[in-house]
Every structure is written in structure tokens, then in C-alpha cells.
Amino acid sequence: MIRVEEKTLGLIVNPVAGLGGRVGLKGSDGAEIQRKALELGAIPQAHNRTVQALEVLKSMRDRLEVITYPGEMGEDAAREGGFEPRVIGTIKPGETTPEDTKKAALEMQRLNVDLLLFAGGDGTARDICNAVVQSLPVLGIPAGVKIHSAVFGTSPRSAGDLAASYLAGKVSRLRESEVMDIDEEAFRQGILSARLYGYLRIPFRRRLVQSLKAASSAGEETSQRAIAAEVGDGMEDDYLYIIGPGTTTRAIASHVGLTKTLLGVDVVKRGELVAIDASESQLLELLQGAKAKIVVTPIGGQGYIFGRGNQQISPEVIRRVGKDNIIVVSTAEKVNSLGGRPLRVDTGDRLLDEMLSGYIRVVVGYNEHTVYKVAC
Fold first, then answer.
1. What region, left, alpha or beta, does residue 27 occupy, with left being phi > 0 and alpha being psi -120 to 50 degrees?
2. Is the distance from CB of 290 to CB of 323 less than 8 angstroms?
């Protein structure tokens, strides 16, 4: 058991974070998008991901006071995670807003918590940055659709592990890390426009914190065409090809004469697009009685192949397709940019993440492959 002096942990949960992911809305910002996501059958993910992080902290609960907001903004997750939290503030259940997040963060600042742990995505990180700037240590539990910022653990459990180590004094280093966000409306139109909003101070241990998302460089186009020829020429007529977001995967569609959405999940069979910008439910419907392969490319600088920006390819979709039918494609430049860090999976399903971990073949060129480690 970790033994520490009495510490306080501030906890904020954005209950709608990640709501638009599996239904293909590419974000959850704004009441209208949240309403639409729920109408499409979206299931909130932030609560469960917070509980996963808090489970790592249970061993120190006798010396840790959790301070949080009511109900869905932290209290529910704290209790399910094994804590008896101190609840402050008020909310309107089912109607929380960014202003609630900011008010909660300011209260945590006033109470001088030792660490502010929050669950959300880039929008939540931006709200907290606007409220507290760098006045206290902060760490994010990844629960959003688009997570470009470098203030999050690599997974919920990694966030919990790092929080526990920091509160126990085993990690003392704090790093100024970037808070990024994008224009979601432009993102839904296939345009990626990211902006630096500021910095937060986070506990830092390299293997537990995700890196800033990096864009592909113009020099990668030749490699992408080679990869596209390798994968495109090998497509089999009796398989569905579920093709994830990215410029490298888009090049594959172009090679076979199709126009792919840059930031969506499309499905190809026999050289034809059978689904454009598909949701999880559409993918599951197409998979009924069908053989399929999934084609994904890692996020530059971060290495995620599942769980960031492609949540439509859900745990159930991956299980139906099977690990042996996953094709990972990446330019050598993108692989090298990881600096030896593994590719990552964070699907929200721990058993699946463990099953996907290990080593996987990565297509890096025409008739060129490498074997690379995958971690959760």
C-alpha cells in the first residue's frame, strides 16, 4: 500500500466528453451536437473512464481526500471508484456546461488541492486552462473524441497511476504542457484547424503521458503513395475494408480511384464506397455476415491506432473483425517520430486493449513492412 501524508485530489468530470465519437460526430462541443449524439444512440464514456483511473488510486484512499462536484460531474464516479468524496458546488443534472467546469476548477484552486484530475477532451482542458492557468498541478483522464493536447495520461489507468505517483511523492517533476483545441465545425467538414490555447502544469513521466499530436509533413507524400499501392493492390473482393481517418489511409482510397473523407471512417468493397463517414452502428450493420479488414494509421507524435479520433471503430467492431484482420499503415517518418515509444490503443475496453497489445506488422512502403510494439 502507498503511504503518503494527507493529500487532496480535485476531481472534475465532463459528463458529455466523447459523446460524439462512436456516432461519427467528431466532437461533443455544444448543446446541439450533444442532443444529436444522444438521438443517434451515443453512450457517455467519461464516467467509466474516470472510474478506471480512480481504481488505481484506491490503495491510498485512507490518506486522500477527493473533492468534487455533484453527481455526473464527479461525485458518482468517485463513489463508484471507492471514495467518499467531499462534494462542493451545484449543477443542473443533465444540463452541465463549460461554465460549470470553469467554476469547479476555480473552487479547486481556492481550496488549494494538491492535484486537479479531470476527465474530458481538448475542450475541457481549454476550459480548465482558462480558469486556473498554471496555478496548480493538473492532469487529464482522456475521455474526448479529439485529444490533441499534451496534458492527458496515455489511458485512464495511466492517468490514475501518474496521479498516485505524484501524490505519493514518487514523481515530483511538473512540466508545462500544451493545451490545444480545434474548430469542431471545420473538423466535421474535413478541415483540421488546431490552435494553441495555453499551457497547464502536469506531473510528468514520459511513458504515462501522451505527446502533442503532430501533423504529417509534405515530404511524406511519396511514402504514402507507396503504402497505398501495397495495400490497394492487395484488396480482396470478398472483404469489406473499414478505412480509418488520415492522409495515409486517404491515399489508399485514392489509389483505387475513390474519394475518401479525411477525418471520417469509410467502408470499401469491390472497389466501391459502401459507406461514407460511418458511425459505429452503421459499421456493425455492415459487418453482419461479412468478412472485413480494418485499415488504420497511427496519430502522428502520439502513436494511437485506436481510441483517438476513430472511436467509430469501437471495441465491438474490432472484435467482430478480429486482430488478424487489422492492417496498420504508417510512413517510416511517422514511426521514427515516436522515438521508440510504442504504438498505443485506448479503446475503453481493457481486455480488448490487452489483447491488441504486443507486436504488430506495420506497412511502411511498397512490399516493405516492419514489426512494432503496441501497448495499452
1. left
2. no
| Digit-coded pLDDT (tens) for 304-325 | 999 998 999 999 999 999 999 9
pLDDT of 307 reads: 93
61, 62, 89: which is closest to 74 by C-alpha?
89
The answer to whether the CB of 104 falls within 8 A of the CB of 117 is no
Single-letter amino acid code for the residue at 230: E
Q: Which residues pair with 306 in a beta bridge?
A: 345
- If one counts every other C-beta atom within 10 angstroms of the C-beta of residue 6, the result is 9
Specify which residues 64 forms β-bridges with: 7
Whole-Å CA distances, 352 to 120, 250, 336, 355: 22, 26, 26, 5
CA separation for the pair 164, 177 (Å, rounded): 19
What radius of gyration do the chain's Cα atoms show?
20
Distance, CA of 254 to CA of 28 (rounded, Å): 30
Distance CA 279, CA 282 (A): 5
Task: In whole angstroms, give the CA distance from residue 315 to residue 280.
Answer: 10
Alpha helix stretches (DSSP H) within the chain:
31-39, 46-57, 75-80, 98-110, 122-132, 156-167, 184-188, 221-233, 247-255, 280-286, 315-321, 332-336, 350-356
pLDDT score, position 2: 44
CB–CB of 177/202 below 8 Å? yes
- For 63-128, the DSSP string reads GEEEEEBSGGGBHHHHHHTT--PEE-S---TT---HHHHHHHHHHHHHTT-SEEEEEE-HHHHHHH
Local confidence band at 132 (pLDDT 50, 70, 90 cut-offs): very high
φ and ψ at 224, to 5 degrees?
A: -65, -40
The cell numbers describing 25, all together, are 460526430
